[in-house]
Specification:
Layout lengths: L4 H12 L1 E4 L5 E4 L9 E5 L4 E7 L3 H4 L3 E3 L9 E5 L21 E6 L2 E14 L13 E8 L2 E12 L2
Length: 162
């Protein structure tokens, strides 16, 4: 009697995954049940903002993306984000000061979008980081510089809406 166990396993594997050779050293497996983990973005319709987010807030990151404060959450709790607002090639938070209480913000992480509503608009000192502390509710904290006031930051907080 011939054992067909290996054939059955290979057949089942082929039914659940698609394998595509990229080059001789890399194999890419695409599982259709896993969300696109590359999708990490912020959308603010009122100011026509749609931008990708990247980990970190150093100059290299902020020159291309909205930066994520590494010590803050990414999906639940307080998510801290920063971006330039003027004087750079990419100034994603240039119009942040135009936001008002009640404006909508969409945050997407790992293919899942959450909706937030602005509830706080304030100016903080550049040493005042308590707005980035974790919270029990889900919120976004957006921080950028204040024009001609280097020791202050503009801070927008939005709570998740259900």
């Amino acid at each position: 009697m011939i054992n067909n166990t290996n054939y059955d396993v290979e057949k089942d594997y082929e039914n659940t995954k698609e394998i595509v050779d990229i080059d001789e050293t890399t194999v890419y497996e695409k599982n259709y049940n896993i969300p696109n983990v590359e999708e990490w973005k912020l959308e603010i319709p009122k100011i026509n903002l749609v931008a990708n987010i990247a980990e970190g807030t150093n100059k290299e990151i902020l020159d291309q993306y909205i930066g994520h404060f590494e010590e803050t959450q990414k999906y639940v709790g307080n998510i801290g984000l920063a971006a330039h607002n003027r004087g750079y090639k990419v100034n994603y938070f240039q119009k942040l000061k135009e936001l008002e209480i009640g404006d909508v913000i969409y945050y997407t992480y790992n293919g899942i979008q959450k909706n937030y509503v602005v509830e706080l608009k304030t100016i903080i000192k550049d040493t005042e980081w308590n707005k980035l502390r974790n919270t029990e509710d889900n919120r976004l904290t957006l921080i950028t510089c204040v024009e001609d006031k280097p020791s202050f930051r503009r801070c927008i907080q939005a709570k998740e809406s259900k």
